[in-house]
């Protein structure tokens, strides 16, 4: 048999075995994922972690900060509003927690880089980064101004990239860290009056998925850096002033405290992606995507959940 033919046969056999081994690994990961849903791992200890949270001046950011502080973590409170940010730090300190405040415009890359240098020098290396800051204009696309859309993308998308560039290197140097990003249910499905916002939250999920691949594919294998993407539904933070919920017992408006409890629990259990409430995640991510778009639209119309247009 010619040498070339022998090589081709060997390559074919090798490819078959590689494919079969890949199938085994894929099914193993599926079964492991199902098992982790049924029997979640024990929450990890965060008492020695330095947790930086953006948008801690109010709402979910403040509540996340309080909960991590109660678990013994050192909290870096970052917000553009120095007054409300200081209020959050004072609440933490009243509970004997450890908190430091920094005022920063996270849309400004240079400011974020300076923030990273200052935090590292004054407190230490950030080991948990929570990109929480965000805004949500609620009105039809054609009524949103260029300035509103650019600002929203700067906060909801670019700020994530700037903080990653600022704080990821120290995590990679230690192969230790956790990055948390706030996407949204609007990052998993289209919603009326939230066209640019949906785009920004889809972008957050894309950034986190691509970052996971980039870290895992790296020859150094940065498996010590965990990623968690959170997709809240409607949370009563003041951003969504006119929620529309048809089945209120099924999909109630969630308080910032309830959301923070679920977020901190997901981080401590190294959940890669979840929704708030968690039971919506697989229903939206898989069922909504497995059926044709028109069919998904019919379901969405039946549930009639979304936001009415309003000014900020």
UniProtKB/TrEMBL annotation:
**Annotated PROSITE patterns:** ADH_SHORT (PS00061)
The keyword Lipid metabolism belongs to this UniProt entry's keyword annotation: yes
- Which GO cellular component terms are attached? lipid droplet; membrane
A GO molecular function term, named singly, is: all-trans-retinol dehydrogenase (NADP+) activity
Coarse class of the primary localization is membrane
Query: Which topology term describes how it sits in the membrane?
Result: Multi-pass membrane protein
- Tell me, what does this protein do in biology? Catalyzes the reduction of all-trans-retinal to all-trans-retinol in the presence of NADPH.
Protein name per Swiss-Prot or TrEMBL: Short-chain dehydrogenase/reductase 3
Task: Please name the source species.
Answer: Euphydryas editha
